[in-house]
Hints:
- The structure holds 2 protein chains of 2 kinds.
- Chain A is α+β, with helices and mostly antiparallel strands.
- Chain A is 13% helix and 27% strand.
- Chain A contains 4 helices and 9 strands, in the order H-H-E-H-H-E-E-E-E-E-E-E-E.
- Chain B is mainly β.
- Chain B is built from 2 helices and 6 strands; from the N terminus they run αβββαβββ.
- Chain B has helices spanning 2-8, 74-79, and strands at residues 29-45, 52-58, 64-70, 92-100, 106-114, 117-120.
- A 5-stranded mixed β-barrel of chain B has the order 1-2-3-5-4.
- Chains A and B meet through loops of A and helix 2 of B.
Amino acid sequence: MRLPLTIALALLLGSGSAFAQTRPDLNGLWQPQYTPDLTKAYGKELPFTPHGAQRWKNVDTANDPTGFCLPVGPARALQSPYPFEILQTADRVAMVFEYQWTFRLFYLDGRTPPADIHEYPEWMGFSTGRWEADTLVVDTVAIHERTWLDTAGHEHSDKLRLTERFRKTAPDAIEWVVTFDDPVFFTQPWTITRTLRRMVPPKDRVMSYSCEENNKDVQHLVPKAN
Amino acid sequence: MMRGVFVAAGALILWAGPVGAHHSFSAQYDRAKPHTITGTVTKMEWQNPHIYFYVAVKDDTGKDTVWAVEGMAPNGLYRQGWRRDTVKAGDVVSVEGWLARDGSHLLNMGNVQLNGQRIFSGTAPTN
Lengths: 226, 127
């Protein structure tokens, strides 16, 4: 029995493993570069708008959302000291984070964000992706504005858009280039580059993590003096 | 036996540098206030987001004051070679750390000596 060509092609393209073989294989457990202060990665003060500068001046680190076990946000998850697993198929890439046991999901099936996505912001944002040659390019919008960009206390608005480029530079290294574009907080988009390193056995597993398990810190946080 | 293996591997498990992520160091601790305690461990909480263990410290009159010591996340410590019984009730420890800003008997863990041997090297986070 012969399959019509269109059906055969559809079956081929629908096969994650067959399609993924033509793309760089990002699967595995990866360790971020811990980046608690984006200023240091950027190399200078971030290009604040007057509003952004005021917020940075007044930020109270006792209000860090992660101190209350709220989700870490999409970029900060890749700046944490905890590893994460990448799971890759033909039309999805997922990142499963040890930190807070949360995840990001990139849609690579050509869709655009839902029309009402900004009415329903997501803690890790809504991400669509595409391959540009050997680089995975991911756009993320509708990032919940309660998340912070880093531990130092850089904040953002609901207009924040992330553009990330993931490129394998060695079998055990991924270059992560992320551009932060938020016209409310920053006068221009700005970019940092970090390296993700592969975790090798016996450390190549996502370990258990529950922030609520023993979060005694919250009772000791001291608000900033005014 | 476990302790013997652990001590022999001691050089491998030293950790240099700050590790945080849960929240800013300065929201809870004062890096300008280093403090050292020595005493007997009464309890280990090997739990996320950070381990806590408790140390009974005797004052000049022989009275115990129990200090809480907050360390790294257990996952990070595990990957550095610690296990849940690396520090346990009855152990004598000396902890160099930083005082909590709220004035409680709480210390952020820096260098740790267990029964006289260094098992952890740490510094205060810088942000």
